[in-house]
Here is the input.
Amino acid sequence: MLNKTGVPTLEDIQTVSPSEERLKKGPVAIIECFQEIPCNPCTEACKQGAIRPMEDINNLPKLDLDKCNGCGVCLSRCPGLAIFIVDASYSDTEAIVRIPYEYYPVPQVGEKVVGLNRAGDELGTFEVSKVQSGGQKNKTYTIWLIVPQSLAMEVRGLRLRSTEIQPKETIVCRCEDITLGEIQALIKEGYSTIDEIKRAARAGMGPCQGRTCRMLIAQELAKFYSIPVGEVLMPTFRPTVKPVKLGTYAGGE
Amino acid sequence: MRITEHPILEFQRGEEVTFFFEGQELKGFEGETIAAALHAAGIKVLGHSPNMHRPRGLFCAIGNCSSCLMVVNGEPNIRICVEKLKPGMRVETQQGKGCLK
Here is the structure.
């Protein structure tokens, strides 16, 4: 599922969630790393010996919840930005979630920012309680957010301000000037695949050959039919897959 | 405008060179993309969309989206977001789908 949606499932999350009891004890790392890839900076980063050395570099990291003191060194060292620190001992009603951040401007202490879940949906506005620089070597910032206890295992990203999409203004296919509103209208009319929409609206037939709009239309179809994006029928792919000069075929260059 | 500070990236620029946008002389750094040099010079409208003629700027910046097609040294449909800047280059806005001579 993660492969198709880019969003870990509830079962994935459960495999790395500490017990309520452990969360209440104080800050702890949540390592949301679910793909076996050759990567081990977190094991090198942990000075507590909580992230054990890997036998095989492709292994998923294993965290010793008793040894982890939530220092956050691994958080800023993870190239995949997959590690978060949750401190549910902050107060009875609120918790701190520490999130890696690699954009400018960096939010300021006291600023209210929009918290996002793993799928990027907005969960509300939360206050920044601390901002840590990763330093010269590492650079990734750590942003501390104060969130309600119930959202401590949900808030995993942040955006400086809320964004509202205007379907009539939002262009989906840039080559042919087709807006989100037009695509949504076609889907409502019953056009149910990318190919059908392409034939009706020309979305995907411009110079970029659908590289921009294909997945955006797939997302809209997935939303409308409540299916994972990976299950939306793809259009037929034919050569050439990238722009090639006529001269190349003619043998002139 | 150029980014001089970034939390993660470092910038290594080539030698300063001269190029032309619609006949106007501009400066850029050799080895950066034409799009980067134009942006640094404050030129953000790279063309216009084919049907509604809305201004088009840089979008994907990796050679995917074809938003930045321009005429370079007389050759149309050049993706300037991936084409490197060379001294003396002549860059022009493209009308419609471009014209082969």
About this structure: The helical segments of chain B are 34-40. The two ends of chain B are 35 Å apart (CA to CA).
